[in-house]
Specification:
single chain, 431 residues, alpha/beta, Udp-n-acetylmuramoylalanyl-d-glutamate--2,6- Diaminopimelate Ligase, Chain: A, domain 1, UDP-N-acetylmuramoyl-L-alanine:D-glutamate ligase, 3 domains, 6-stranded parallel sheet, 35% helix, 19% strand, globular
């Protein structure tokens, strides 16, 4: 849908008056707090309009609906499209704070970790809000913007996309003054129509900033971003690092100061540097920034080291694409450890590139000196016919877990990497 706030201006202003009195938004009728405004969103398998009355009965002050039959009294606010109304309301709210510093973060890999690290740094100086978890889409971005209060000084908005035009749409909702793209890699190739589509979509953030004469923060170590920066008249900040793998953790020399983080992998040095660069731009005390990075503990199975009674696990079970998986395997190869195992989940949304990209991963694994390899998902099945002695294939992670429970591994260092949808994290229970 084209983002056009003028056509809905009066209706949005009416709704905004109610929001100012009851500044709490929910889209889940199961978790209503007294005074909430309930937005009756629709999905492929649900219609939020059907739960509007329940939301009111549970204490919601207003239910925003888009089907007339459910607007039975003045507790129901009838609109043409609930989702679009949510987006317009959030943009209207954001515009009430012209002096707010707003940074948008996108990229193929590392955007959530970079957002978390940046939040840790920036909140040392500013009253800051940030996207919660990976609530980074056409619903999550508006909900984050609606958390802005008069006390908020800085907002960090993560933006995700798997189709062209989505980043530009989110930019027009959030209106960032600053933007950072972590990197551009081979992910969501099916939705983007190939790697060139990924580049074009991710750089929608920079094109928006260029149009608005705002600031781009550019990772010069990423070839696509470095090339893109040439010939564009951004107000820019640039950062760069030489990748080094140091022990298990991401370690960084920033202006002569050594930063020892709890993150693993060379790729996280880039994420740390991005956060430190943002801190420097906004004049956060360097020592406070370093402490914030060193105190940050990864969660949600992103770049976590977990020591069990029997093994050391490297858990990176939230996202996997050809770029992130290749770097993870390179880091794991360089890690000095005995009895190394790699348990890898299939990559999704690769379209016609899927077979080629999965073969590349199998080839990398076969070039490594690993005691054992488990490959999970139908995308890997065709490589089983010529499998190596150290390889085992499963259709699902639950089948792999059952196997591991009956074939215990001891004193291993185990990389577990896969997309959230492959549920690779369940394997840790068997190790």
């Amino acid at each position: 849908m084209e983002f056009n706030r003028e056509d809905f201006k009066q209706r949005i202003e009416e709704l905004y008056e109610h929001f100012l009195l009851n500044p709490s938004i929910t889209t889940d009728s199961r978790n209503i707090k007294k005074g909430d405004i309930f937005f009756a969103l629709k999905g492929e398998s649900f219609n939020g309009n059907k739960f509007a009355q329940k939301a009111i009965e549970m204490g919601a002050s207003l239910a925003v609906v888009d089907e007339k039959e459910y607007a039975i009294n003045d507790k129901y606010f009838l609109v043409e499209d609930v989702l679009y109304t949510l987006q317009l309301l959030s943009n209207h709210h954001r515009r009430q704070f012209p002096y707010l510093k707003l940074l948008a973060i996108t990229g193929t890999n590392g955007k959530t970790t970079t957002k978390e690290l940046t939040y840790a740094v920036i909140s040392q100086k500013y009253n800051t809000i940030a996207t919660q978890g990976n609530f980074n889409n056409h619903i999550g971005v508006p909900l984050t913007l609606l958390r802005i209060t008069p006390q908020t000084e800085f907002a960090i908005i993560e933006m995700g996309a798997n189709h062209p035009g989505e980043i530009d749409f989110l930019c027009r909702i959030a209106e960032p003054e600053y933007g950072l793209i972590t990197n551009i890699g081979r992910a969501h190739l099916e939705g983007f129509g190939g790697f060139e589509g990924v580049i074009k979509t991710k750089t929608e953030l920079f094109r928006y900033l260029d149009r608005e004469n705002h600031f781009a923060i550019i990772n010069m170590d990423d070839a696509s971003l470095s090339n893109y920066s040439k010939g564009h008249n951004h107000k820019t900040y640039k950062y760069s690092i030489s990748n080094k793998i140091i022990s298990e953790n991401a370690k960084l020399d920033f202006e002569g100061h050594i930063i020892n983080s709890k993150l693993i992998g060379s790729y996280n040095s880039q994420n740390i540097l991005a956060a430190m660069t943002v801190g420097k731009i906004f004049e956060v005390d360097l020592n406070l920034s370093i402490k914030a990075i060193e105190d940050y503990t990864p969660t949600n199975h992103r770049s976590q080291i977990q020591k069990t009674e029997d093994n050391t696990l490297i858990l990176d079970c939230y996202n996997a694409n050809p770029s992130s998986l290749t770097v993870a395997l390179q880091d794991f190869q360089a890690l000095k450890a005995d009895n190394k195992y790699a348990f890898i989940g299939a990559m999704k949304e690769l379209g016609e590139e899927s077979t080629k990209e999965h073969k590349n991963i199998v080839d990398i694994l076969r070039s490594m000196n690993l005691k054992g390899v488990i490959l999970i998902g139908e995308e890997f099945e065709e490589f089983e016919k010529d499998k190596k002695d150290n390889e085992i294939y499963f259709k699902t992670s639950s089948l792999a877990k059952d196997y591991l429970l009956g074939n215990k591994i001891k004193e291993g260092t185990i990389l577990i990497k896969g997309s959230h949808s492959t549920k690779m994290d369940v394997l840790s229970d068997a190790l």
